[in-house]
């Protein structure tokens, strides 16, 4: 198979495809954030944990039968697109907004939206500001290579605000600049603001403004042109949501496979039919996925639920049957 990139991305020559490459090297290489609590961050032992981490481990479980056969590569925001399009990583599972330009011009394909978010602002309470519309004349820390830059400029123009943007290569650098007083505000996705606020010396001294100024649908990325690999990642993620819909958990998945009379569950778990063969996998691909990381709801609760320090309400990330936007395509 010959892989061809159009536009700014040249043909790379003979290429076997990502699935074959991953199986040959027996490890999945995944781009991840540089460290955002709840999404992806090393724990005290150096092991990567988080919502985005579990999404990637689900893919490793499906393809390599082992969620631990994965190498995580920390990437700054401006690196994530080129890392995928150039083949440095097999996918990125990190906070990346699905936009027209990225999807159509930058050599990557998005898979499935796994987290619906929106951009907000964080300020020090001492500033005495209760709305982002009152930050006229403020300096705002923002990360390069993100949708946040353009959104900030649009917000300022729409509200007649004079704002000075201080742009940093990495989120850690931007947050540190905000924490040390180089800027008045810090802007990024609301969920990340909640996450990063917990890393500040005195989290309660900082407040997230009520305004959400953009839509930020976040989805893992794969290299453009490899349809089978895109299908695999997409359907693994669909399977996580479908498992929650049908009550399949890490604790009951084997019992559900043997005892459920629901034909949808039987197909998903390989009791009937062979859905895995449609994307180059075996019958038990979804069983391994759910055993490894649980369903979508389990993953969300583990990293953002009421028992966590973040406690981010699911909101629009609830299942569609409960008034949210998470909806799995039919596995059949």
TrEMBL record:
Domain Solute-binding protein family 3/N-terminal residues, every copy: 27-256
CDD domains: PBP2_BztA
BP terms from Gene Ontology: amino acid transport
Pfam families membership: SBP_bac_3
InterPro entries: Bact_solute-bind_prot3 (IPR051455), SBP_3_CS (IPR018313), Solute-binding_3/MltF_N (IPR001638)
Keyword field: Signal, Transport
Organism superkingdom: Bacteria
SUPFAM superfamilies assigned to the protein according to its UniProt record, in alphabetical order: Periplasmic binding protein-like II (SSF53850)
UniProt similarity note: Belongs to the bacterial solute-binding protein 3 family.
Protein name as catalogued: Amino acid-binding periplasmic amino acid binding protein
């Amino acid at each position: 198979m010959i892989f061809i990139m159009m536009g700014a991305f040249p043909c790379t020559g003979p290429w076997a495809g990502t699935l074959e490459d991953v199986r040959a090297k027996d490890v999945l290489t995944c781009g991840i954030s540089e460290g955002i609590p709840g999404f992806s961050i090393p724990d005290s032992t150096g092991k990567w944990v988080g919502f985005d981490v579990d999404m990637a481990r689900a893919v490793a479980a499906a393809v390599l039968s082992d969620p631990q056969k994965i190498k995580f590569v920390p990437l700054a925001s401006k690196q994530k697109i080129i890392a995928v399009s150039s083949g440095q990583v097999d996918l990125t599972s990190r906070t990346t907004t699905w936009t027209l330009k990225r999807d159509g011009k930058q050599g990557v394909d998005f898979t499935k939206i796994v987290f619906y978010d929106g951009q907000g602002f964080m300020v020090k309470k001492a500033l005495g500001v209760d709305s982002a519309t009152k930050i006229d004349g403020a300096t705002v820390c923002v990360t390069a290579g993100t949708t946040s830059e353009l959104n900030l400029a649009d917000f300022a123009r729409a509200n007649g605000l004079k704002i000075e943007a201080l742009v940093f290569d990495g989120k850690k650098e931007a947050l540190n600049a905000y924490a040390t007083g180089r800027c008045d505000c810090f802007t990024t996705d609301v969920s990340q603001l909640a996450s990063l606020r917990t890393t500040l010396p005195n989290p309660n001294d900082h407040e997230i403004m009520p305004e959400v100024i953009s839509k930020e649908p976040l989805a893992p990325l794969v290299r453009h042109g490899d349809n089978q690999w895109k299908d695999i990642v997409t359907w693994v993620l669909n399977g996580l949501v479908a498992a929650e819909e049908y009550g399949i958990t890490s604790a009951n998945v084997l019992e559900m496979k043997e005892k459920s009379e629901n034909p949808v569950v039987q197909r998903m778990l390989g009791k009937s039919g062979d859905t895995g063969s449609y994307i180059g996998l075996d019958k038990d691909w979804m069983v391994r996925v759910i055993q490894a990381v649980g369903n979508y709801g389990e993953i969300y609760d583990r990293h953002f639920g009421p028992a966590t320090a973040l406690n981010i309400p699911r909101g629009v990330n609830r299942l569609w049957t409960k008034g949210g936007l998470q909806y799995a395509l039919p596995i059949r």
